[in-house]
Amino acid sequence: MPVEQCTQAKAKLERAKQRRHGLLKELTEDEAKLAHLRAQAHPDASAVAAQERVVALDRRFLETAEDDVGSLEDLVHALCDDLP
User: Fold this and answer.
1) CA distances (Å), 66 to each of 3, 13, 72, 83, in order?
2) pTM (2 d.p.)
3) Which of 3, 19, 20, 80 is the most buried (most CB within 10 A)?
4) Which helix (H) or strand (E) holds 3?
């Protein structure tokens, strides 16, 4: 049973890392879009504001994903470190 719990925790950790990676990629892309909008000769204020909200949400989601990864890493250590 402990080995199964360890294996499941490692799988969850891997999925959380993949999710975090995907969210980081989205944040990078959305920040680039925001920079592009701001760099235009006559930036559309509503488009810039909307993209700023998207970037802010991306950052919050990424922060949550990073917390999840940290918690799962702790869980993996707790479940797996003492196993043979």
Assistant:
1) 25, 11, 10, 26
2) 0.86
3) 20
4) helix 2-39
